[in-house]
Each structure stands twice: as structure tokens, then as C-alpha cells.
Amino acid sequence: MKHLQLLQRRAFLKKMALGIGATSLLATQGKLQLMQSAMASSSSYSHLNDHKSLVCIYLFGGNDAFNMLIPYEENAYNQYKLDRTSLALKREDLLALKGGQYAFHPSMPDVQTLYNENNLTVSASVGALIEPVTRSDFKNKSLQFPEHLFSHSHQELFWATGAATKSGVQPPGWGGRMMDMLISANTDPNQPALFSLIGNKPWQRGLKPLNFALNPKLGVEEMKAFQSNSWPPWKNSRIEAWNKIIQPNHHASLLEQHMAQTYLNTEERIRPLIDALDAQEIATPYERTSLSDQLKMAAKMISIRETLGMRRQIFFVGIGGWDTHANQLSSHSKKLKELNDALNSFHKTTVELGVENSVTTFTTSEFGRSYTANDDGTDHAWASHHLVMGGAVKGGEIHGDMLDLSLDGPDDARSSGRFIPKYGVDQYGATLAKWMGMTDSDMNDIFPNLTNFDTNDLGFMKPA
Fold this sequence. Notes:
- By secondary structure, the protein is α/β, with parallel strands linked by helices.
- It has a single domain, classed as Alkaline Phosphatase, subunit A (3-Layer(aba) Sandwich).
- It has helices at about 1-20, 25, 30-40, 75-85, 110-115, 135-140, 150-160, 175-180, 235-245, 255-280, 290-305, 305-310, 330-355, 425-435, 440-445, and strands spanning about 50-60, 70, 95, 100-105, 120-125, 195, 210-215, 310-320, 360-365, 385-390, 400, 425.
- α5 (about 110-115) packs across α13 (about 330-355) and α11 (about 290-305) packs parallel to α13.
- The chain is globular and about 75 Å long.
């Protein structure tokens, strides 16, 4: 019985933490961080009166973009087939893109259509960089590089923050920092406007408590454990005790007062969300997959933006399974199909809601894969390609210079096809931030390496 009670208590506390969306954790990070957040932006975005939502899809594990986007021109394909050996896909199975130079993986027919109809683009040759790097720079170690290249945890953190953890303090993520500043565009700047469908991750953590964790299937769950209609009746004494606990004036301790008030504030915040989500239906069909569930809930949140007074929103979704060291042909095909199906349904939903021009969806992953095979899989590498979808993208194009895929060639960091990125994560993120309406000075504050590059715009978004 004691063990069961302990499990129930843990389950309740976990649900409470998810409902709060990490608010209490962020609220206690210290006076210094609060001072920083108060001075975080040199610009006010209260003048923005249109709607824009940004949706980040993180592919945990490192997507093999070189079998997602494949050379299709015959000579280039033949070289691809020679270099990729057992992992090379058959040319007749590939989904050709307009122009005839490249093709998508056979599992991505809807993404092919989105691209060919100008609703999706590719941002090429992107990766973790502190400053532009050549092969000579890498071999001579003459420039700065992100710490622990090819490590999942370190590169995931760098993608999220553009920096490494210092003295145990994790830097804020660029998604969270964007929302710190853009929140002034919304009618209630104290309400969370960054919603995660996959828990609390570094990318979404800013300096202010503005992120909120949602359940992909249920959205926001009520806190039912201590309500007056709880059953059985013997819980009444616990309910009475709980009601005293959550009264801030019941406590002498400032910390206890804060926790009680946080709980009450959370209950107050989630009620409008619960009511609005319950009343909203999405007609577009979705496959029953993890990513589809997450994107469908993001779509429902976008559909109630006016009820919540949201002019700027950010969403974080993600799926694992991209670390393809073995059995890659089969596992990668399944993951790309899940991505294809989810992107297609989400795009159709934005059309259904009439927001296809004001919602931009983009992929990220900690790194690409090695061009050479490791038996029937690939190893961790560096540069990759990313998909960007929406009516505001310059669709039907590949943006940026493509990598020279020659093994031991000018873009190969070593000799196994660990290609050096031509563009940094900071540039990729800044291009999206610019579309959201951010100023150059604020983007330089958000992206710590941005000033090391010649441009903060990779060109894959239409002018505002």
C-alpha cells in the first residue's frame, strides 16, 4: 500500500510539473538571470499585429540527410552509388525534384509534392559552427570549433544554444530567447507562448518562464487529484489539507508562498487552454504516430491563437530513432515516412485554418551522418540539410551552396565523408528569427556566433 501511495504521489507531482511547464524552475534561477531578462531586448515588439508561428521539428539522433536528398543527375548519382556502397538507393526509386538535379527518398512522396509546388524548401550544408571553417583550418586546428564534435549530447546542446555549458550553467536556447523578446507582441506578455510537445529541452528555455509543456494527445490535463468531487469520500480530509497548503497567506516561508502561488497561477492559466482546446476540432486526417500527434496538437493551439491573444507563438516537437548505426535502409525509411506523413497533414491543416502563410515549420538535428557506410549503417558526422515548409518560404529551391561530396575532398573533414558545414546554426536560426520580425541587434544577442559570419540571412524565406 505504501508503495502504491508513493507511486500515486510521484505521478501527481509529475503531472503538476508538466502543467506548470517548468515555470517554477525557471522562476528560481536567481536574481542575476531576472536582471538579465529585464534588460534582454533593446526592442519592443508590441507593434506587431499580425500572426506568425514557428514550429521546430527536432530529429533526435542525427538524420542522414544524404539519403534524404540524393544527387539525381546521372553522373552525380553514379558517384553517389559508388561512395555510399551498400546504403545507395536505386535511382529508379528516387522521387525527382524539379530541375532534375536532386531527388528525395522514396518514402517522401508528399514532401516531393510540397517541394515541387513551392511549399517546401531545403536549407543546404548547415551545421554546428562558431565561425566559417575550411578543411585546412580543421586539420591545422587554427580556428574555434564547437566542443566535442560528433557527440550527441554536446552537439544537441550547441544546436539549441550556440554555446557550451560553462561552470555547470547551461546557456539559454535560441527558441526561448526569441520568445523572451517577441512576447511583447502578444496581448498578455505574462502568458506562456512557447509550447513543447516533448518535454523540457534546452532549445525552448529562455530567461523568462514562458515555455509550457503540452500533452500531445490531451493538450492540457486538469489537476484532478485534490478537487472536491474526488472519490472516494475519505479523501475529503486530504482535500481540506491541500486547500490550506495552496493558500499563500497560510505560509510564513517566502518559498512556500511562492510555490502555493505558482500552483494557483497554473490552475488559472490552464483553464482557458482546456476550454478552448476542448471546443476545437481539426478536420484534416493524421496518421497515428508520435510526430503526427504532436503536430496536430500544435495545429490546435494555433487555431485558438486569437482566443489566447497570441500574435507570436513557437512550438517544439521531435522524434527519436535517427541514430542509424545499423539497419539504416529499413529504419531510416520508416522514420522518413513518419516525417513525410506528419508534414503533409500539418501543411494541409494550416491551409484548413487559413494560416499557411503565417506558419513556418523547420527541421533540426544535432548532426548529419558519415557519407561512407559502417557495415549497414553510418557514423556521427557534421554537416546536414534541413527542410523548411510553409507559404512564406521560397519553395521549390535548394538554398545555399551544396557540399562537394568527394571523399577526402575539399569539404571532407577527414576521409570518410564527415563534411564540414558551409553555414552555421546561428545563420539558420537567424533567418527564421528575421521572418518572425526580430531586429538585427536582438538576433546578435540571441545567436552568440552570428557576427562571425558574412550574412544573417540564408535566403530561404520570402521578404516580409
